[in-house]
Design brief:
Elements lengths: L2 E2 L3 E4 H9 L1 H12 L2 H12 L3 H16 L5 E14 L7 E9 L6 H17 L8 E2 L5 H16 L5 E6 L6 H14 L4 E6 L7 E3 L5 E3 L3 E8 L13 H10 L3 E3 L2 H6 L2 H7 L2 H4 L5 H8 L5 E3 L5 H11 L6 E4 L9 E2 L3 H7 L10 E4 L5 E4 L1 E2 L16 E16 L2 E16 L13 E3 L1 E4 L11 E2 L1
Parallel strand pairs: 2-21, 6-7, 6-10, 10-11
Antiparallel strand pairs: 1-17, 3-4, 3-18, 5-21, 8-9, 9-10, 12-15, 13-14, 13-15, 16-18, 16-22, 18-19, 19-20
Helix pairs in contact: 3-4, 4-8, 6-7
Bound molecules: adenosine-5'-diphosphate and magnesium ion.
């Protein structure tokens, strides 16, 4: 996995802001999840054209109508941010939220290992951190494992299991395994099983009280989805029926279908309208969180704002925008000069409702070095001889267990930093665009010489 030589510079105050808003984000997501009317209203134009979102919402409709077999909801999320350089002065940086991942929030284990690796690399190449900086501890793996344990405890029955639902060819296997190990280390009495989603239909059934049973008689307390977030994941007969069956069971789902839906990018657009945000949050909570939001525009066909925003987008600078469908996992967004032709092709089509338009975040270029595996073989050349201009994205983990609308336990903290070369638009390590990094917190921007860290 590519890694940066140095931890990525980040103003300490802005990092703290990202940590501080996590409980408000947890609360907001729970409120969305519990508000089926809001989900239906916000996603109605998308459901009309996007089978994937429609299938998710349909499952929510069915389980809500039948009455939930399990009133406890859980979610392990990661909220992603980038620094935004909003003037020509490199000291003028602010935080912008990229997205919230409500399902399969990955990479908590490599983010912890990155810290160790960077300590090693810096010692090997005799690089010292500047005086005005700190390297924060990273407990992301613990937050994820504890989030699962909190959910397990809420199920309240011994000799039950946590089921990790995984993909067929698991790139993320080491991450899953280390979470399993961490759970074991913290709670040796909890047993974990890992199963491929595609193998579950032959292996899973509901007991007389809707218990979720696998391998004949193992009762599942928590279903931890590390898969099931992309239409491709449902490419086998009965896949959607299987997701429905899991939702209908008494097991606690991490995330439950409504929590999964609450991570849709459409909600970022809808809730960028302050009035809508106050449906869920007090005015002061809304203040705290909304100043981190980007500007968004709806492209809904057949609505007056959708029409206006669509026409405005056609005549704006494409470099200032990102076009996003309701997808996860990297590689789906449309950037820069590809936006206008794409929008033109959607002119009279309802299809365009499934996208949101987002303001492009103009991240500062940090001086760092992205090491790929071939670099490790080149002992003769010091990686410090080269500098790359990189752009980084910070993710903050959070977990919630709630009963209906009431939060029973929540956790925040632990971080992931992913860095990519300046100019690369998409992001993500698994998707092949970025490497992993750590955090170098800069104490006081006023006294720091920022040219040490950033290109102007
Ligand atoms: P996904 O759910 O596929 O991860 P994201 O919204 O996280 O979708 O977008 C993927 C990547 O695209 C991000 O990791 C980031 O690098 C880049 N990106 C997304 N939105 C923006 C934006 N508004 N400005 C700049 N870059 C963005
Ligand atoms: Mg992302």
């Amino acid at each position: 996995m590519p890694i940066t030589l140095l931890p990525s510079p980040f103003p300490k105050k802005l990092y703290q802001q990202c940590l501080d808003v996590q409980p408000t984000i947890n609360k907001l997501m729970l409120k969305i999840a519990n508000d089926s009317a809001f989900i239906e209203e916000s996603l109605s134009t998308i459901i009309a054209v996007d089978d994937f979102t429609r299938n998710l919402v349909n499952i929510n409709r069915i389980v809500q109508k039948q009455g939930l077999s399990q009133p406890i909801l859980s979610c392990i999320s990661r909220s992603d941010y980038m620094l935004d350089k909003f003037t020509d002065n490199i000291h003028d940086l602010r935080i912008r939220q990229v997205e919230i991942n409500a399902i399969a929030s990955a990479m908590s284990t490599p983010s912890c290992s990155a810290r160790l690796m960077q300590d090693f690399l810096m010692s090997k190449y005799r690089i010292k951190c500047p005086n005005d900086t700190t390297l924060p501890d990273n407990n992301s793996l613990e937050v994820v494992a504890q989030g699962l344990i909190d959910a397990y405890n809420s199920y309240g029955k011994e000799n039950t299991y946590i089921l990790i639902v995984i993909e067929e060819k698991s790139f993320n296997f080491p991450d899953h395994l280390k979470i399993e190990l961490k759970v074991h280390q913290l709670r040796p009495d909890i047993r974990v099983v890992r199963k491929k989603f595609i193998d579950l239909p032959d292996n899973v059934r509901l007991g007389p009280n809707k218990e979720l049973l696998i391998d004949i008689d193992k009762e599942i307390a928590v279903v931890y989805f590390r898969y099931c977030y992309d239409p491709e994941h449902y490419n086998f007969p009965g896949a959607w029926d299987l997701r429905l069956l899991l939702e209908q069971s008494r097991a606690i789902k991490c995330p439950s279908i409504n929590f999964h839906i609450s991570g849709a990018k459409k909600f970022q657009q809808v809730l960028s309208d302050r009035k809508k945000l106050e449906r869920f949050l007090s005015s002061s909570e809304a203040d705290r969180i909304s100043h981190l939001f980007c500007k968004f525009w709806s492209l809904d066909a057949n609505t007056s704002t959708g029409e206006e925003d669509y026409e405005a987008a056609l005549s704006s600078r494409s470099e200032d925008l990102v076009l996003k469908p309701q997808r996860e996992g990297g590689g789906h967004n449309i950037f820069g000069t590809n936006i206008q032709p794409y929008l033109n092709s959607l002119k009279s089509s309802e299809e365009r409702s499934q996208f949101v338009l987002m303001e492009y975040i103009n991240s500062p270029r940090e001086k760092n070095r992205l090491l790929v595996s071939s670099d490790t073989a080149r002992e003769d050349e010091s990686p410090t001889n080269f500098a790359d201009d990189l752009v980084s994205e910070l993710g903050i983990y959070g977990s919630v267990v709630a009963e209906g609308g009431v939060i029973r336990s929540e956790r925040k903290g632990g971080y992931l930093v992913r860095s990519k070369k300046f100019g690369v638009k998409e992001g993500g390590v698994a998707a092949g665009y970025a490497g992993i990094s750590g955090l170098l917190l800069i104490d006081d921007p006023k006294v720091s010489d920022w040219s040490k860290y950033y290109e102007n």
